[in-house]
Design a protein that fits this description.
The protein has about 130 residues and is α/β, with parallel strands linked by helices. It has one domain: 3-Layer(aba) Sandwich (Rossmann fold). It contains 4 helices and 4 strands. Helix 1 crosses helix 4 and helix 2 packs parallel to helix 4. It is globular. The N and C termini lie far apart (about 30 Å). The structure holds magnesium ion (MG).
């Protein structure tokens, strides 16, 4: 019987969705996920590298941020080669007036970043192993 909190279930769900749409929608947080908000010298290269991999396999990336200066966010993302398709906006293929952006997974330092990071890495490995990407 499926237990909804099993990581395997959410991993398999992402794999099924990728195979169905040849894409995933990934929302990623800005502060302390790809940007060193507290100026502690943190580097977020693993998350950035994962986002670059996801972009390379046709995923749609939304920066989902509480930052008010979106020009700063956009400039930072471009200058640091962090791929994104939208900032705080739903994908054009997902029509919704909801303030919550739609995504298949959310990478956020306040929402189990390590688990989602590991899971998405696993998804790319499994898709590659089975030659879906
Ligand atoms: Mg954050």
């Amino acid at each position: 019987m499926d237990y909804y909190l099993d990581i395997e279930n959410s991993t398999n769900r992402l794999i099924d969705e990728y195979i169905k749409y040849n894409s995933l929608v990934i929302a990623f947080d800005f502060d302390d996920t790809v940007y060193d908000f507290h100026k502690k010298g943190r580097i977020y290269s693993e998350v950035v590298s994962l986002l670059q991999t996801l972009k390379s396999i046709n995923c749609y990336l939304i920066c989902w941020t509480g930052q008010e200066d979106l020009d700063f966010v956009k400039t930072y993302l471009i200058e640091n080669r962090i791929p994104f398709d939208a900032i705080n906006e739903n994908p054009p293929f997902h029509k919704s007036t909801s303030r919550k952006v739609y995504a298949n997974a959310y990478l956020d330092d306040r929402a189990g970043l390590r688990q989602v990071y590991d899971e998405l890495n696993n998804v790319t490995k499994i898709l590659s192993k089975h030659k879906y990407i």
